[in-house]
Amino acid sequence: MTLNPQMPKCWRVESKPHKFCPGCGHGLVLKALGEAIDELGIQDRVVFGCDIGCSLLTWDFFDVDTVQTHHGRTTPVITGLKRANPDAIGIAYMGDGGGYAIGSQHLVNAAARNEKITVILANNTNYGMTGGQMAPTTLPGQKTETSPYGRDAEDIGYPTQGPEMVAAIGQKGAYVARGTMANIRQLKGYFKKALQNQMDGTGFSFVEALASCPTNWRTNAKDTWNFVENEMSKYFAVGELKVPDQLKEV
Amino acid sequence: MTLNPQMPKCWRVESKPHKFCPGCGHGLVLKALGEAIDELGIQDRVVFGCDIGCSLLTWDFFDVDTVQTHHGRTTPVITGLKRANPDAIGIAYMGDGGGYAIGSQHLVNAAARNEKITVILANNTNYGMTGGQMAPTTLPGQKTETSPYGRDAEDIGYPTQGPEMVAAIGQKGAYVARGTMANIRQLKGYFKKALQNQMDGTGFSFVEALASCPTNWRTNAKDTWNFVENEMSKYFAVGELKVPDQLKEV
Amino acid sequence: MGKTAKIALAGEGGQGVQSVAEILAEAAYEEGREAIYIPNFGVEQRGGVSIAYLQISDQPIGSPKFQKADIVVALSDRAVIRTQRYVDERTTFVYDTSIEGVEEHLPKNAGRVFGIPAIEVSKTELHPRVFNIIIMGAVIRATEVVTLDEAKTAIEKKLGYKFDENPKLREMNYQALEAGIALVEKAL
Amino acid sequence: MGKTAKIALAGEGGQGVQSVAEILAEAAYEEGREAIYIPNFGVEQRGGVSIAYLQISDQPIGSPKFQKADIVVALSDRAVIRTQRYVDERTTFVYDTSIEGVEEHLPKNAGRVFGIPAIEVSKTELHPRVFNIIIMGAVIRATEVVTLDEAKTAIEKKLGYKFDENPKLREMNYQALEAGIALVEKAL
Amino acid sequence: MTTVFKIETQEGEKGFFHIFPALCKGCGLCIEKCPKKCIGWSKTLGVYGTPAVGADMAECIACGICQTVCPDTAIRIDRKEKNK
Amino acid sequence: MTTVFKIETQEGEKGFFHIFPALCKGCGLCIEKCPKKCIGWSKTLGVYGTPAVGADMAECIACGICQTVCPDTAIRIDRKEKNK
Amino acid sequence: MTEKPIQGERKMFLTGNEVVAWAALAAKVDIMYGYPITPQNEIMHYWTRMAPKYGKKFLQTEDELSAGFTTIGGVLAGKKAFTATAGPGNTLMQEPISMAEMMRIPTVVVIQQRGGPSTATVIYSQQEVTMTTYGGNGEGFRVVYSTATHQELFDYTIKAFNTAWKYRFPTFVLGDGYQAKMRESLHIYDPEEKGIKLVEPTPTLSRPGQIGVNREPNHIRNTYNTEEELYQIVMGYAKEYAEISPEIIEFQEQDVDDAEIVIVSHGVVSRAALAATQELRKAGYKVGYFRPITLRPFPTERMRAVAANTKKLLVVESALGQLNKLVLNEIYGLTTPIETLLKPGVGVTSEEIVTRIKSLL
Amino acid sequence: MTEKPIQGERKMFLTGNEVVAWAALAAKVDIMYGYPITPQNEIMHYWTRMAPKYGKKFLQTEDELSAGFTTIGGVLAGKKAFTATAGPGNTLMQEPISMAEMMRIPTVVVIQQRGGPSTATVIYSQQEVTMTTYGGNGEGFRVVYSTATHQELFDYTIKAFNTAWKYRFPTFVLGDGYQAKMRESLHIYDPEEKGIKLVEPTPTLSRPGQIGVNREPNHIRNTYNTEEELYQIVMGYAKEYAEISPEIIEFQEQDVDDAEIVIVSHGVVSRAALAATQELRKAGYKVGYFRPITLRPFPTERMRAVAANTKKLLVVESALGQLNKLVLNEIYGLTTPIETLLKPGVGVTSEEIVTRIKSLL
Ligand SMILES: Cc1ncc(C[n+]2csc(CCOP(=O)(O)OP(=O)(O)O)c2C)c(N)n1
Ligand SMILES: Cc1ncc(C[n+]2csc(CCOP(=O)(O)OP(=O)(O)O)c2C)c(N)n1
Ligand code: SF4
Ligand code: SF4
Ligand code: SF4
Ligand code: SF4
Ligand code: SF4
Ligand code: SF4
Ligand SMILES: [Mg+2]
Ligand SMILES: [Mg+2]
After folding, report:
1. What is the ipTM of this complex?
2. Which of C52, D56, D109, H199 has a beta carbon 3.0–4.6 Å from H165's, enabling a disulfide?
3. Ligand 6 pocket check: which of E6, E10, E29 to mutate, most ligand atoms within 8 Å of Cβ?
4. Inside any domain, residue A213
5. What is the CATH number of domain H9-194?
6. What is the CATH number of domain F11-78?
């Protein structure tokens, strides 16, 4: 008997090892997502859209129908698809740049319209794909390629509070949470609720996941964990921000 | 002695009567703004930017330096100007469509970066300039040209809570309020604080003003007031949402 | 009428020139003729002059706008000024005589220029609300592009639902139509 | 050398081919010669093969990329495959002998092909971290585009600040450079 | 101010009601808000040819609300000083 | 699954530690998270030519944390059933 | 609910925007996505009034980027989807359409041109020709129908969906503010009753079936890793586009055979050009009329033949030479002199053309 | 703080993106606004490292729309401001640049072209020529410098600010991914020390003084009410643009006088073309080289003269005929046959050109 890796069933094994860097948080986030899809048994119905950002590397990541879209535009593509085919389970996967910067009008308006889709956003405090520029989520003092002397929060603000913003504009029936790669079980739970909420037709679902980018952070494994667990958590509170009634007992 | 109309001093008399429809809320909002500018004595320093929307009709409304920009893009134009010349007092004036739909990425990111500018948004629950289509702020059941059978909140959500969203993403030092044309004195007070906050260099300032659009609402004077005071107020709570410390005693 | 009749109607926002043009176009269409009606529209429509461009012909019609009109009807001071450009020596220019100080703005180059007291008549003899129907009557008489009957049918189609509620309205509209015709006849 | 030397260096992300190319380019530039160095870059750089294109000449250089290289150095299996396209009958193709099963992928049409045990040497004789400097030595010897001295100056410029902290490093780098030269000499 | 607007003034016990017909668009917002319900349509035409407004000065208390709510600054209220 | 990954298995008292070198990118995240600090670099090379990992099975408690935190599913832990 | 929107053929007197909404219903469109902009608004107004009666959908998006990308989403779901825009909205629409071009997504976009550059006027122009045919960071792999009458607006809107779904290149119906807002008569009809086959849409994503059992997942992408990969893709598209072009190309002409001067125009301006041609012919002038209906692909072969066979061309348009450039791109090598009558942002009347032609002959 | 960034002249070995950042410093640019995109990122990286040392500013915006519009804001404040982008970012940039075109705002944008359409590749192409010269819903009232070497990248970036502020048309420096990422040597210098006068920027808004006392407020607009108003504006711009074009136009040529075939190329491809020309000349082939440096305005007069004087043209570019269209637009009436070597999204080497020329002669 050959033993196989403990990959989620919906991961596309032919494209593994995946294209992310060593230690990349995207891998962990997508493992949690894959398990959530498996456990809900929805592989056949999922349409996965990935943004441009390191998320683009997932264009053949899952054994589910997948569309690699354009930077910031995954939310409208999945929205349009879901509106046209309400039976599909639409997942829009993106980074903090794609979701909070160039695609923020789509995010807040999809939330405002209570689109029945699930948006998952990997917050790694920088623009990973383009080589580590400042993102809306970059921490105060954090050095990036476009904040070489550290982000000056007086001048350009503190990190964007995405789920808080979405919760503020979110509607009755919306599900909003922030998880972390440091707690995969919890993160998977959030993903399951976010997908269940869509399947129930209740409302918009949004989960931010704190994720590592060791390449651009220039961190070793130890510092990577430290950054995720101790630095990011100073600014980004993990937990559920909005849970519709029908998911409360879950 | 000839008596003159009680126009704010900074109104440009040569362009009056202004170009708005009879009973248009923009006129009242801009009266409050004009008085705020007068009382602060900042006419020479103000740069006023107007959006495309009925606000475009203000391109020669004030005797202040004015730029008529592009639909949704007033926030970045004023942001860019303020960054280049911090002595200017930048006002970005727009409608609910320009601010919450096509320009929402600019609004939330200016708020997130705590840009030292003042954004004023006239919420008239529709797209006035283009002839009365649904806006993010359209009330449930309200008929517009693109919601001819009334806005279906189940399908496309309840009205966007703009100031609430801005407050959620807003930073320390930000000023956020919602006023109404039904209370001009209060509205003027909000505008003054919003401008003072910019002059103090404390943070981003945002005021939404509930405003009438009798033309597209197809209301007579009575129904216009009724809609502003009784219908809109069901969904839009007037008041201050975020007041930085230095303005609290004002 | 082999040739295309070109008509420009201009007035203030509330004066209803667009519906006059639309009804006339519908009437011509129902008569089986070719008609193009195009409103002017722009960002200043909020407080601007409203112009309706109407062409009626027996042949397919070219450009929806035209350079010079056969007949121009201008119902306000600003309308008189804005429509100058459509006037040449073949144009009949009709204006409302109640516009204050209009004389100095009237086109010098028009084929003929005459005023009708339509606002006055609507206020005193009929009702301000049928002012535009008087104008319609005037246009019908001045251009003869549609028959009175077709005009009535078109009005019926457009406003019939209101007439059903209040049959007196129908009466008043027909009177207005005829008043407009009469005004032009008197002026001619 | 009147002619332009065209060099393609390819390896996995961590193997440092880009800095080898950059240092060589700097060395040539410092010698007063024309040099163009361009890295490959693409969305798959995350886990992809990294290629450095280097041209050194006495005249202004045309296109920054080229069709066929004078020398190709490929340091991994995938690098061997990806660089096939730059090989023709005038190309010298250098690969690392420790790549498992590489033989079947080696280009058939290359002018000459030879392997050097650079990975091995770096692991056993020197230190994995100077692997790329060994490669640099190999390239210098195989192409003779820059002198040993200039290469040393360029390394000094690039890594000098590290050497200041730890002078032993300088020693090791120079040894690596010479080791690379020796490896090629042996293979030739 | 270089532009001068024609003014029509009505005087009452508490003050003056001035209307600038060239600014009045006849929206009626003032009529609705007058606490004394003493504003009505006037014979004078406003800027768009619709009636401007006037006040019944027997009723007007010169509270100034009409001035405040006019989006076009077409109304000006001048209170008479109490002591005078 | 049509793709088969080569596997290296280590057995300990509590269970099996399997590593798929073709999936291991040598990021070290597992090493940091092992509660027993019993994971280290192995002689086997991973997919990028960097060392893969292995466990000191004397220490390993088969808690599975390393499996959970590996972004590349390169580790598989199989616990031995208690009763067996 | 499922009643047919149009039974048989009917003469109607409509605005162009109404016509588009009717045509979309006739073409069995499932969903419209849109963002308001003058002069296109009434397409959405009519659609939102009529669509629900026939089980059709509408989504008003937050901007034109979203309108374009949601349209793409709708198409990927296998639905006939479209959007409509104008001017600055068209500028933004180039981003989603570039993606549709890259990924061969059969989106349909109706453009009602207005004045440019930027916000300019909300009224009318033919200044969106370059952008609609070749906009974005691509190579113009689109189909563009430029209509002149309400009848064509109806016919070509229906056709646009067939073209898009058959060839999978984004397809535009290029109208303008005049066509949008004016009323004239036309015949509306059910295309299938007329024997026009409607191409069936098929889903790219969210297809029925079980993955690994009776279907494979579909993975579609917008990004390539190497220059060479991209080159293959683009050249493949170019080849395909060239091959299908003869099937798509349409044009209209009159009196060109013996013409000493041929008026070249497109869209609504060609109405004036045609009227001018007729008037001048009556007056004995040897004038011809040529009008590309497809601006992409361009009727190169016929345009060349016409140009070669006459003494002069007069290109007339409500833009500063955008049609003229398309012509110049295609007829190089000829020496027939070209005159132009270029009126960016304003209408052109037959009188002007007549005057101009007379001055040229 | 106020120390000069560059003293005298210095030879350096830099990447193209570094060169742009240095050039902007040399041109006394006050502020850069930008959004990351490959292959332009390092312009921002270098700028953010160097700028604060010289009291310069930077703002990273939420997208390219914002980058363009904040740049407009900076310019209106009277500061030298610029942004840089590529590919899909350039597509979005057309919206703000259309406004700059309409309102005559002297924005400067550096483009490092990458593969298209849409996201495509992050690497290289010359597929943004049509969009950069004529993008948006306008008439192409812009200036576009296409550079080939790092020296030019430096020279023309400096010049771009002068051109923009002198003529008040939006000005582009059109590079590409190769130029962005490659390292080669160049001389950087302080332009004023070299006698190059830098045009002083002036504020449009937020000017000093007291309104009504010693200044009037400025009101600038993007919208017009009637077609005729807009027509006046656009035709006025067209006239002005035509008048200043001769002052702006630049091109480069070699061996065209007796050439039997002339290679036409621009940007980085012209390096290969020049090398090919030299090689072929050495081998005795009568080959010439012509390269427009300004793609807008185009060197029409000289291009026509060159084309008229040779037996054949070979247009070479890393796009599917975008330069070719610019050429065709300008040389109509000639009959010199045109051949093309079109390689969308991939580099062109001198070897390829040599081979092609040999096959043509
Ligand atoms: C319109 C457009 N602008 C910019 C880019 C360049 N770009 C690609 S990915 C990216 C940012 C990625 O950051 P994020 O969304 O946080 O994802 P990450 O890579 O960090 O996971 C940017 C700016 C682009 N592809 N398209
Ligand atoms: C890019 C772009 N898209 C669309 C439009 C059309 N447009 C002009 S104003 C407007 C909406 C105006 O609504 P709002 O912002 O609420 O202002 P209001 O007129 O209601 O005051 C729209 C959609 C445009 N000018 N530009
Ligand atoms: S760059 Fe960062 S986010 Fe992107 S794959 Fe690498 S580690 Fe992950
Ligand atoms: S349309 Fe509405 S918002 Fe616009 S001017 Fe008229 S009343 Fe005001
Ligand atoms: S001042 Fe007061 S009482 Fe008098 S008219 Fe105005 S609102 Fe009425
Ligand atoms: S005075 Fe003012 S509020 Fe009253 S009707 Fe006139 S415009 Fe309206
Ligand atoms: S199973 Fe637990 S104890 Fe064993 S190696 Fe993994 S993390 Fe360490
Ligand atoms: S096993 Fe997984 S977590 Fe551990 S080093 Fe390898 S890839 Fe990283
Ligand atoms: Mg990120
Ligand atoms: Mg509004």
Report:
1. 0.97
2. H199
3. E29
4. yes
5. 3.40.50.970
6. 3.30.70.20
